[in-house]
Amino acid sequence: MHTVFCDVAVIGAGPAGLAAAIAAKQEGAANVLLIERDTAPGGILQQCIHPGFGLQLFREELTGPEYAGRFVKEAREAGVELLSDTMVLSIGEDHILTCANPEKGLVEIHPGAIVLAMGCRERTRANIRIPGERPAGVYTAGTAQRLINRQNAMVGRRVVILGSGDIGMIMARRMTLEGAKVEAVVELLPYLAGLTRNRVQCLDDFDIPLLLSHTVTAIEGKRRVEAVRIAQVDQQRRPIPETERTIPCDTLLLSVGLIPENELTRAAGIEMDSITNGPSVDQRMETSRPGIFACGNVVHVNDLVDNVTAESRTAGACAARYALGTLPRGQALGVAHGSGVRYVCPQRLDAAAGGKAALYFRVAAPGGKTVLTARCGETILARRTVPRVSPGEMCRLDIDTAHLTAPVTVEAQEVEA
Question: Using one digit for the tens of pLDDT, what is the confidence trace for 313-335?
Answer without folding.
Answer: 999 999 999 999 999 888 889 99
